[in-house]
TrEMBL record, chain A:
Residues 364-383 are annotated as: Disordered. It is found in: Cell membrane. Pfam families: BPD_transp_2. This is Branched-chain amino acid ABC transporter permease. It comes from Modestobacter versicolor.
TrEMBL record, chain B:
The chain crosses the membrane at residues 6-27, 57-79, 91-114, 142-161, 191-216, 222-251, 263-282. This is Branched-chain amino acid transport system permease protein. Keywords: Amino-acid transport, Cell membrane, Membrane, Transmembrane, Transmembrane helix, Transport. It is a multi-pass membrane protein. Belongs to the binding-protein-dependent transport system permease family. LivHM subfamily. It is found in: Cell membrane. Coiled coil: none annotated. It comes from Modestobacter versicolor.
Length: 383, 296
């Protein structure tokens, strides 16, 4: 897996006093093994899972994870609360349908187009949104969602208005059609092909975000989050840093939107409402703010909530059954999201990622450093 | 002319309700520094509790509203005491997210208890109207405007003259100095949540008496309309909340009637947000807000 894209290590060797590890796409041997394992899993999991029901759920979780990784850049790393992520996801979804469905262009064009369109709109909105601090950004982003739904409802030719539209964009990459994957005589289910596509994109997105956060721009975001004025004194240009975070977050939201459109096959403006933004926010809070894998864990967890609610709905006394008054599945899921946000913030502010770390330490008290291959850290230190 | 005056009056009535909703946010933000999103939930509960007390338990309307106000207030104080108080000063994020978590719990709980159908609050005004010349003013609008004025006067007097009100102002101005003077921050925080709950319950009941809209799922969406109002008025200015509410109410009512069809469906719904964006461009701290000086 040759993933080096950075300056050759020779240039770092020339400055022996530097303590920064060499800039590589994947920093350590453990990381490279991790990438390989991820690639193997992305192909092996769908081929060995026969249940299209569970694969569908994992696909939904993967799409949500891509969007949440984006929101995590803005909220977790750059410290800006946003309720407008659903707007960018929706924008990406409709752009994907426009470019891929109505203009009938291939996926290599519509998927980037969804990301770029959302990123551009993000760049246009950022100067307004970022003039303000604290709760104000959240409020402006709330306005984005309402205005976005209004615009989408009235752009009938693309969005189909209130009723929405069937997604005609195809998930094809050259000769490979992810929706009708075949290998020789083997024919795969739609969910299996889409799993490979969605989780491969998620893997790429994680790789990109992990690396952006190690660059100057990424560290500047975290500095602004921790203390904006101090960061500015140290030479971080606040406005530019925050705009970067906003644009990256929006673009990732747009890409997630494009995949969401293909995965759902049918989209309507009202789906991209505040509730969807809430879901993304719940994902990153529950998974763990400002951690790489937090959004992924959170996405799987939050996507499973309505599934389990559905499974147990018949045995819970307070649920709506037949014509009786009571809670619907959506209602109970919302209540659980809300309760989990509160409980996690009070009891485990660093999210599921921290819980996992705690479990690992309990199981293997000397874990952590012992588990890591010693050579990687050693090599960085000696340079 | 008469038509415009007619729109103006319904606008003022809507604005009064928005002002009540916005004040609930401002009271808590000013004295505890928390941007309390749970306010939207108080609105929903207030409307439904008034319904239950009046229609199911058969209390007279005024008593039913009072009971609902007391109950929602108590719930607000309870939430503050058990959950919000310990994270109120944590950082900017945690309180917003926690109150947000509480907000998204309440509407589905209400939908579970009271069901998904529209309810008729059975307000005493019904469709009665007062005629002044060519103008027709519904009794409901009159009642909303008058009761809002009374409430605002009481509100002002409380902050201006009562000991607790002054203590709340002192805490808002300088929490540590107020603490040193013997003002309990715990009491002040709980009291401000109690007041916010009361305002929310009253505002929610008034919202639910609107002809046509009524009491049903989605009431919290109306409570979200108070948010642009706060931005217009400034997050920490009670006067701004009232004037901002009136302004948004009147403009929105004119948009409902006067904006041509070519603007597309549902334009009036985004009017408050568009107004807010314009104000934020010109004066980011709101029309009546104060610019914060920050120290390193």
């Amino acid at each position: 897996m040759a993933t080096d894209v950075s300056t050759p290590t020779g240039s770092t060797l020339a400055t022996p006093q530097r303590t920064v590890p060499p800039l590589r796409l994947v920093g350590s041997r453990a990381g490279r093994i991790g990438v390989l394992v991820f690639i193997v899993l992305v192909i092996a999991v769908p081929l060995n899972m026969t249940s299209t029901y569970w694969l569908g759920i994992l696909n939904a979780a993967g799409v949500a994870a891509i969007a949440a990784v984006g929101l995590n850049v803005l909220t977790g790393y750059a410290g800006q609360l946003s309720l407008g992520h659903a707007f960018f996801v929706g924008l990406g979804a409709f752009v994907a349908q426009w470019v891929g469905g109505i203009l009938d262009l291939p996926m290599v064009l519509w998927l980037p187009a969804a990301g770029i369109a959302a990123g551009l709109v993000g760049a246009a909105v950022a100067p307004f949104a970022l003039r303000l601090r604290g709760p104000y950004l959240m409020i402006v982003s709330l306005a984005l969602v309402f205005i976005g739904i209004y615009v989408a409802r009235n752009l009938r030719s693309i969005t189909g208005g209130n009723e929405g539209t069937i997604v005609e964009a195809r998930a094809t990459l050259g000769p490979i059609d992810f929706e009708e994957l075949t290998l020789g005589t083997l024919v795969f289910a739609r969910e299996q092909g889409l799993f490979i596509l969605i989780w491969a994109v998620l893997g790429l997105v994680l790789l990109v975000v992990a690396n952006v956060m190690r660059t100057r721009g990424g560290r500047a975001m975290q500095a602004v989050r921790d203390h904006d004025v101090a960061a500015e004194v140290l030479g971080v240009r606040m406005m530019r840093t925050q705009t970067n975070a906003f644009v990256l977050a929006s673009a990732l939201g747009g890409i997630a939107g494009g995949l969401l459109a293909v995965n759902l096959e049918y989209i309507r403006p009202d789906s991209f409402n505040i509730d969807l933004s809430v879901q993304y926010l719940a994902i990153i809070v529950i998974g763990g703010l400002a951690s790489l894998w937090g959004p992924v864990l959170g996405a799987v967890f939050v996507t499973l909530v309505p599934v389990f609610v559905d499974q147990f709905a018949t045995s819970l006394p307070f649920m709506a059954q037949g014509g009786n008054a009571g809670l619907t599945t959506t209602d109970l899921s919302l209540i659980l999201y809300g309760a989990m946000i509160v409980v996690f913030l009070l009891a485990e502010p660093k999210g599921l990622v921290a819980t996992l770390g705690r479990i690992r330490r309990a199981v293997r008290p000397s874990g952590g450093t012992a588990g890591r291959p010693p050579r990687t850290t050693h090599r960085e230190d000696t340079q | 002319m008469t038509a415009n005056l007619q729109i103006l009056i319904s606008g003022i009535s809507l604005g009064c309700v928005l002002a009540l909703l916005a004040l609930g946010f401002v009271v808590v933000a000013k004295s505890t520094g928390v941007f309390n999103l749970t306010q939207g939930g108080f609105v929903v509960l207030g409307g439904y509790l008034s319904y239950t007390a009046h229609q199911t338990w058969g209390l007279p309307f005024v008593l039913a509203v009072l009971l609902s106000i007391v109950l929602v207030s108590a719930l607000a104080v309870l939430l503050e005491a058990t959950i919000v108080h310990r994270i109120a000063t944590a950082n900017l994020f945690t309180p917003i997210l926690v109150t947000f978590g509480l907000l998204i719990i309440i509407p589905p709980v209400a939908a579970g208890i009271w069901g998904p159908d529209q309810k008729n609050l059975g307000d005493p005004w019904g469709l009665d109207v007062l005629r002044v010349g060519d103008l027709t003013i519904t009794h409901r609008d009159l009642a909303v405007i008058i009761s809002t004025l009374v409430l605002l006067a009481a509100f002002g007097a409380f902050f201006r003259f009562s000991r607790l009100g002054l203590a709340m102002q002192a805490t808002a101005l300088d929490p540590e100095a107020a603490l040193a003077q013997g003002v309990s921050d715990r009491t002040v925080h709980r009291l401000s949540w109690g007041i916010a709950g009361a305002l929310g319950a009253f505002g929610g009941t008034m919202l639910a008496t609107t002809a046509g809209a009524g009491l049903g799922p989605g009431l919290e969406q109306y409570a979200l309309l108070a948010i642009p109002v706060i931005i217009l008025g400034g997050l920490e200015s009670p006067l701004g909340a009232v004037l901002g509410g009136l302004f948004v109410g009147i403009v929105q009512q004119f948009a409902v009637v006067r904006v041509p069809e070519s603007f597309g469906a549902g334009f009036y719904e985004v009017v408050p947000y568009l107004l807010m964006l314009v104000v934020m461009l010109v004066r980011p701290e709101g029309l009546f807000g104060t610019k914060k000086v920050r120290r390193i």
